[in-house]
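Narrative progress, year one. The postdoctoral researcher (J.K.) led the effort to move from monomer predictions toward full complexes, under supervision of the PI. The following entry was the first complex the group processed end to end, covering 563 residues in total.
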Amino acid sequence: MRTVVRVVERIEETPSTVTLRFPYAPAAEPGQFVMLWIPGDDEIPMSLSYVEGDRKGVTVKAMGATSRHVLTIAPGDWIGLRGPYGNRFDLAPRRLLIVAGGSGAAVLAPGAERVVAGGGSVVVALGATRAPELLFRQRFAEMGARVEVATDDASAGFAGYVTGVAERLLAEEPFDAVWTCGPEVMMRKVLALADARGVPTFGSTERHMKCAIGMCDACAFGPFHVCTDGPVFSSGQLRSVPDFGVFHRDAAGRRVRF
Amino acid sequence: MAELGVELAGVRLRNPFLLASGIWGESGASLAGAYRAGAAGVITKSIGAAPREGFPNPTIESYGSWGMLNAMGLPNPGIDDYPKEVEIALASGAPVIGSVFAGSAEEFGRLAERMAALGVVALELNLSCPHAEGFGTEVGGTPPEVERIVREVVDRVRIPVIAKITPNTTDAPALALAAERGGAAAVSAINTVRALAVDVRLRRPVLAHGLGGLSGPAVKPVGLACVWQIFERVRIPIVGVGGISTGEDALEYVMAGARALEVGTAVAVEGAGAFGRLARELSALLDELGIARLADAVGVAHAAR
């Protein structure tokens, strides 16, 4: 169930974000994640940023100690993998709005590629703290999506949060669905904006994760487990979870407010 | 339709299936979900005096259909933070059994009092975690230790006390007997079986902690043997646990001597739907065998010897 492989490629996407590519044959769908084991350190959940074929990839942003360690991994280094786990994005929407904050774009890009390849149209509201941190700006443009950016420091595009861009796009254009991933407070705002326009939302969520197979409850999210019921949840599910955008749980299971 | 309801240490259960400790149980909503899905009762994650993060990952190695190996390391929010989760679980109507772990009899007693005060119907003492230094088997692995801890807790609470004992010993029935002498209302067996996985490419144990505990179908025969032997030595009821994933597994445990059952790995593999399926399978099997009440089948396999 666990595979140990050598990393074959390392790509610096932004100053704080790195993509690792590795051979991994199990079939995966956009939205699914793997448990990435850094031998001697820890094992963390990572959504696949590349799902096609036998050469999968993850795109990791420096956040905690382990993700900072991941950034030092070089081609030839061993990593462990299990999965893919979790559900996937529904690829049916023909007119899709993607709202990505920070490293959230890593989760959303593979599904966007599938939607575009299937003849759908994709508009991406892409937000970051500053212009060099806009993740996959080029990848989204190359796949044929329209990209509108926002930066906290006004170094590119809309000055402010990406939800400002999303609000305008939702007011100006019709969409069949919104996909979002990023800081949960942002996602909660996106849900409210899309609800106001009657557009269904699918959000990819994150929680502290241990077993990843629905046993340990570390990733409890209201009545759900992010590992087996998610990580992608619908508008109705997100609205039903009192935790959403309010609190997560630490490694001991204590509630921690966002 | 056969009667699946059983009574365990004075607690009425609508069927024999309890959510085993350690599966879910960090959040009240998950416990409530197990009850709504058909569990007769739910056992909390083992709660300690202080918050504990548990071991780093990897904490689990899955073996597909035959089970899994884990060394979670007793992660829990601590007794100060846990009352709101118990409150949510109780609000669903679930009989909640509070599991506690501690490093000494005195600490067990203090924790048990606090857990009992939350309104749980019974306590389960974790005397059997196979991998956490200073807890579990390390403090409850011998008969004198088991007896002393159980007596301390029984003296301090008014609700039934269940002692969960380890299979990682040459004489599990002696532990059960010690629990009975200490005043336990029931004994649950087994906890996970100490086990190891090694990654040959990395030349290291897979789990961050090294040793872990095996659960799931692979350990069922081990659990059955423990329940069988315990039944011959003690009079208090036995809660059977270890690899129950079908109605027939459940009846095997009952016929070996279990009065109630805990389900863990099967719930992790299948989700909460496992509870409804197990009850349906067990009910159909009892009907097929002409057994009117599950309680009538407790320990019947011993008569054939």
